[in-house]
Amino acid sequence: MKLFGLDIRRAGGAMAQRIEPPVTAQAAAGDEGLLAVGWGSLGAPGAVRGLPRVTPETAAHHATVFACCNNIAGDLAKVPLKLWQRQGDGQDVRVREHAAGELLNGEAAPGVPANLVRFAAVYAYALRGNGHIYGPRDGGGELMRLDIVRQGSVSMLRDGLERFYQFEDGAGVQRRVPARAMVHLRYMAEDGWTGRSPIQVAAESVGIALAGQRAAARNAAGGTTKGVIKLGDNYEGEEQRVRNARRIKDAMQDPGGDGWIVTNPDEDVKALDISAADQELLSSRKFDREMLAGIYRMPPSKLQMLEYGVKANGEQQAIDYLTDCLLHWSALVEAQLDVALLTRAERAAGLFLRHDFGALLQPTVKEQYEALNRAVGGPFMLPNEARAKIGAPPVAEGGTLNPAPNMTRAAAPGRDPEGDDA
Questions:
Q1: Domains of the chain by residue range
Q2: DSSP labels for 278-338?
Q3: What's the pLDDT score for residue 255?
Q4: Are the C-beta atoms of residues 187 and 125 closer than 8 Å to each other?
Q5: d(Cα 284, Cα 276) in Å, to the nearest integer?
Q6: Which of 142, 296, 386, 405 sits CB 3.0–4.6 Å from 68 for a disulfide?
Q7: Is 298 left (phi over 0), alpha (psi -120 to 50) or beta?
Q8: What is the pLDDT of residue 305?
Q9: Between the CA of residue 73 and those of 82, 117, 126, 197, 329, what are the distances in Å?
Q10: pLDDT bracket for residue 177 (50, 70, 90)
Q11: Residues 6 or more apart in contact with residue 272 via CB below 8 angstroms
């Protein structure tokens, strides 16, 4: 720098070299630019013109979509999500003293139960294909809480292989956190990070269902033509013509009317019932319901579609629901929670999360007692272990296995043995 022709630059101070960011061609980015800034959850446009745009918000208005997402999220939220550790001998031991287990089953955040947080995340996961839970950590790396975030306002940013999330927390503060502080449940992620909604993947089929529902709603709300009034030409003025037409219309819509309408000789009234096309449209809604249930792997009985029959045994029906539907969703949720909430060292030590579906397969009192009776008399279960399962206190004689039913027992004392040699 020069002043009045003199160089007043500090001696020995080299000028800092200016570094420009690298410039890449626009074509190299392709279509991933919008996904990189969080626009991957926009509604999928259909290839057929005229079908409604399929978005999570519009699809949630369909009762079948809501029922499927509500059943999946509700059943995964009401069962305990327990933390286990697999030992070297293959035995799984319950881990109770851990922040993840407490936050997932107790109080996730101040005043917010854990079941509510899990329900919100899994519901958004099933509906949108992406569910988020904010999990900040302290300086030691321990989980502090699990917060619900507004699922539709989370943007994922990308810096190479690193991922960052921008969202608004419960206090109304805009945050940008690394992937380590965010539980991101993503479904059918082709790149491993960007989840896709099942209703947007099958956008055309879901669009047909939404179009059928809207047509049925318009028909039920009176949005279609109900009748035709043919008026004569012998009216003195337009006002008299309109007044007579309104009189006939009111008589047709009067629920207390006797069914008789008085008209002029050259006039006619014709009521239009539901057309054959509308009847076929309403009957096709049953197919739409079956199709949406198939997308979510939901058994018909869970949607009260009882025309297909029900299982003779309620327990078998619950087992089929567990194996056909819930295990598909729970396995993906458990795997992503393991990576997000457990450290690499904890996972290497054998820690993992698993839903306890015993609440869904709860037996009756009779079935439980019969099973415990067989287990104790088997024998492979101690009597005290069986008593603990039903909440009864242990007894002094319950610490040893009962003898097998076919074991030869010694003669009771004080009783003479039978036989000729007695």
A1: 32-224+275-361, 227-271, 363-403
A2: HHHHHHHHHHHHHHHHHHTT--GGGGT-GGG---SSHHHHHHHHIIIIIHHHHHHHHHHHH
A3: 67
A4: yes
A5: 12
A6: 296
A7: beta
A8: 78
A9: 17, 10, 8, 15, 9
A10: very high
A11: 225, 226, 227, 228
